Amino acid sequence: MSGTLVRMAGPTVVAEGLAGASLNEVVRVGEERLLGEIIRIEGDRATIQVYEETAGLALGEPVEASGEPLAVELGPGLLGSVFDGVQRPLSELAAREGDFLGRGASLPALDRARAWEFEPAVAPGDRVEGGVRLGVARAPGAPDHPVVVPPGVAGRVAEVRAGARRVEEPAVLLEGGATLALLERWPVRRPRPARRRLPPDVPFLTGQRVLDCFFPVSAGGTAVVPGGFGTGKTVLEQSLAKWAAADVVVYVGCGERGNEMSEVLDEFPRLEDPRTGGPLLARTVMIVNTSNMPVAAREASIYTGAAIAEYFRDMGRSVALMIDSTSRWAEALREISARLEEMPGEEGYPTYLASRLARFYERAGRVETLGGAEGAVTMVGAVSPPGGDLSEPVTQCSLRATGALWALSADLAHRRHYPAVDWSVSFTLEGDRLAGWFEREAGDGFGALRDEARKLLQRERELAEVAELVGTESLQDAERLVLESARLLREGFLRQSALDPADATCPPAKAFEMLRLFLEWHRRAGAAIGAGVPLRSILDTGLGARLLRLGQLPAAEVPAAAAALRADLSEALARMEAE
């Protein structure tokens, strides 16, 4: 089916003669065959958002409908690849066309020439259905790639073709003539089905103490990371990609500055994967749509990332989907809505912003797959509120749709406190659900310690306001101890060094032992002050400095170091009380 262009407004164009087209159908626009998607139909007129620069298009140029929705190619070769928002392979296109892509440039997302060794797990006569593993695809220098039956496909195996196969070549033939290849296509806006959702009672461990202990999120949960410029959103997401409990990382750079994304593309291949010792990029899929790339493709990029994440989830893997940032996605939505002349909502964003965000975050979850395995997609969405204003619409809509807020503070970032998570603003809705896991796996009493630590930090904030008025020296020793204990907790527990091999990540058991010792120091020092020991004498023991160095020890050495420090504390306090 084909039509003709009758109206153009930036990336939004209108074509006549497409009466039989459907919503979200992919079209090719103009003589250069620019990629687009139908977003509105009125009679035989279709409104199309074009995923490329539209300058130079002329009225009357042809528009060709494909009959299919916008879809991604899923199969071996995804890991380690870099795509744009509509899954064009940027590395291959750059090699062919240079650093700047021409309009209409296109290549298949997966290499059609590369051969993979297919080792089947099924035999003729077996009945297969969606989610069943057909076998494994292997290639030199690439991780093993499970091949599963796509959702909605079922039948009895008639023939298996093992050995070297390209992604489009049939690997399994079903009775009735249907074929299954290593490659499948899936519409990006349609969530992939699962057998059932599992309860959110297992944490998504990040390796960051402030997140795992104070504001945990479940595997398959959602978190939003708002923060102004320079607060460390990108650095935090890179640390999560490296250290979080995820088998696969899908990183979506949505509308960020080109310089920032080029830095990410330069650093990721050089980051070492702590699991394998190889490059972190080997278990990462990157989707890049910078601020100077077409705005419509930016809107599609997060759906492309979600479809790829769900594909790996269906293999029984834990997937972390990082989006940097949803604010740029919402700005693209606002621009498209304005060109459609829709009624604007708050700050010009479309009135359906909240429902679109909620629908997207609902694609996260820990599930039992169609094949009976357990997989999860955990979403972490960065937000870039103008001026750090958390009351703006994108942040507020994200808060209503997600389970945790990891708010970043510019003040903490300027003080070189990493991660710059503001513990007075951040929260989680999943702490109670995950409390049982932490009590079992980290240590009995973990929840009580966390509550005690947060009360200590809140008390410090109250006393700090008083100290600004009257001076620290005017406070009683017990109040000054609160300030000192909270400082030790902030600098020794909540702050982590991404450059220290032992402190870059922290397992829950190590965090529990550290937190217990910090709070024990505070309680016992408070008891000594109550018995008449001056605070200065306690501080002169140097035990506080030893507390600050606990995080730099490997996890296996922390219990012994904590026991030694606890014994030295008992001896010092006993001596001072006797004096």
Structure description:
The chain is built from 16 helices and 26 strands. The model has no long low-confidence stretch (mean pLDDT 92). The chain is globular and about 95 Å long. The chain is α+β, with helices and mostly antiparallel strands.
Radius of gyration: 27 Å
Number of helical elements:
16
The N- to C-terminal Cα distance equals: 95 Å
- Overall geometry: globular
Measured by DSSP, the beta-strand proportion falls in 15-25%
Structural domain tally:
4
Q: Report the structural category.
A: alpha+beta
Walk me through the topology:
Elements: E1 2-9, E2 12-16, E3 25-29, E4 34-42, E5 45-50, E6 62-69, E7 71-74, E8 82-83, H1 90-97, E9 115-120, E10 127-129, E11 133-138, E12 145-148, E13 154-160, E14 163-166, E15 170-174, E16 179-181, E17 184-187, E18 196-197, H2 209-214, E19 222-226, H3 233-243, E20 248-254, H4 258-267, E21 284-289, H5 295-313, E22 318-324, H6 326-339, H7 353-361, E23 365-368, E24 374-383, H8 393-401, E25 404-405, H9 410-414, E26 427-428, H10 431-441, H11 446-470, H12 477-494, H13 508-530, H14 535-539, H15 543-548, H16 558-578
Helix pairs in contact: 5-6, 7-8, 11-12, 11-13, 12-13, 13-16
Task: Give the structure's gist in a few sentences.
The chain is an alpha+beta fold and about 575 residues long. About 35% of the residues lie in helices and about 25% in strands.
What key attributes describe this structure?
EC 7.1.2.2, alpha+beta, Rossmann fold, 10-stranded mixed beta sheet, 16 helices, hydrogen ion transport, OB fold (Dihydrolipoamide Acetyltransferase, E2P), 35% helix, Elongation Factor Tu (Ef-tu), domain 3, single chain, ATP_synth_asu-like_sf, ATP synthesis, 6-stranded antiparallel β-barrel, 579 residues
